[in-house]
Amino acid sequence: MLAALRGSLDRLLGRGTAAVTVPPLDGALKPNNLLENAPHAVGVQEPDNIVLGRQGLMFSSGERVLRLEPAVGAEPVTVITAAGPITAMALAPSGSFAVASDAGGIVLFDEGGRNRTVGSGSGKALSCVTAMGFADDRTLLVCVGSTENAIGDWQRDLLSGGRSGSVWRFDLASGEATQLAGGLGFPNGILAEPDGQIVICESWGKRLVRIGASGRANGPVLEDLPGYPARLSRSARGGYWLSVFAPRSQLIEFIMREPAYRNAMMAEVDPAYWVAPALRSGVSFREPMQGGALKQMGILKPWAPTRSYGLVIELDGNFEAVRSMHSRAGGRRHGVTSAVEQDGVLWVTSKGGDQVVALDLGTDGAK
User: Fold this and answer.
1) Region 23-360: CATH code
2) How far apart are CA 273 and CA 288, in angstroms?
3) Coil, strand or helix: which one is 293?
4) What is the per-residue pLDDT across 201-259, written as a single tens digit (0 to 9) for each?
5) Which of 33-42, 235-244, 277-286, 353-362 bottoms out in mean pLDDT, i.e. has the lowest?
6) Three-class SS of 229-240
7) Exposed, middle or buried, 223 (CB in 10 Å: 0-12/13-18/19+)?
8) 114-161 confidence digits (pLDDT tens)
9) What is the dihedral of CA 327, 329, 332, 336, to 10 degrees?
């Protein structure tokens, strides 16, 4: 009862959960062009899920898992081809790796190329898998973004206020599947900590939360992000790399308070032209926020709002932002879904820009 009254008062006064404010990009998040201007990149269609293991750097693109070759200019090599578009991937300490797709479920591959399907008895846990991570060689942690929408319908899930996401733990030896947490707003990244706790990137909550090994919620570790977080990986300095796949804006925050408008828009407008965050923008003149809102006399305004953005953030061991790399409005390396560090180089998947970008952390000015 008190929660309902508080919600009504927030909506009346435009505060709390009804506020349309967005945190500024300032301090360690001050905009720059480090991601956009990085000189080294590999062109590939919608790269995603980059991971580092014994076989080197691997990432997904559509139905394929590809390996980046160390030779400069070499084309990525296809390692495996899944039954359908790959939605998540994870590498185990032993060298085996797990691949998830809606068509084939979760498949575990060992170093010899042999494979087996895992979690086939878990039902909902096999659909809309957004991220995975190994706690150890026999324990796989899985994020399910939504049970109401397919992974390709993530914009609809956001606009409809989706909170059907969940986190699962699979025991690969026994085949047992355990749901650790539910009712989440599109969990889209997961990382096991040495003490057994788990950090989850909750996209629609714009935050990172920690849960215990038993699933008990231990509270947020980072809140009110300026965008929607994707995957999380470790840095060489004891911290983390956080990918942000789309920006927040006051316009989107405003329409999230207008259910009648959102429902009418989703029913009547092509999804490509919804007022919603996106992995890429500036492709069509029919997109929202075009014309004078963005450009004047052919010049992009410095304050122009954008539906897409490129952002990767380095966090320290306490989940405080240390530095960031950006591809701003008007850039093309947007829709960052994952990042991993190797020998002083940060490899970033720009799904919206169709590139795997290499940032030299020592010489590209990314200090």
Assistant:
1) 2.120.10.30
2) 6
3) helix
4) 999 999 999 999 888 888 899 999 999 999 999 999 999 999 999 999 988 999 999 99
5) 277-286
6) EEEEEECCCCCE
7) middle
8) 677 876 544 444 789 999 999 999 999 999 999 999 999 999 999 999
9) 50
Question: How far, CA to CA in Å, does 261 sit from each of 36, 53, 275?
Answer: 35, 46, 10
Whether 172 and 139 have beta carbons less than 8 Å apart is answered as yes
Distance between CA atoms of residues 172 and 142, nearest Å: 12
- Alpha carbons 75 and 72: distance in angstroms, whole number: 9
Q: Domain limits of the chain? A: 23-360
Distance of CA 56 to the CA centre of its chain: 22
Give Rg (Cα) of the chain.
Answer: 20
Chain center to CA of 230: 2
**Residue the block writes with tokens 């909902």:** 124
Q: Pull the structure tokens for residue 137.
A: 């060689």
Token pair 């180089």 is found at 345
Output the six-digit token pair for 248: 């927040």
Cα 21 to Cα 30: distance, rounded to the nearest angstrom: 18
Residue 299 burial by CB count (10 A; 0-12/13-18/19+): exposed, middle or buried? exposed
Its pTM stands at 0.91
Residue 58 and residue 47: Cα distance in Å, rounded? Answer: 10
**What is the mean predicted confidence (pLDDT) over 58-62?**
96
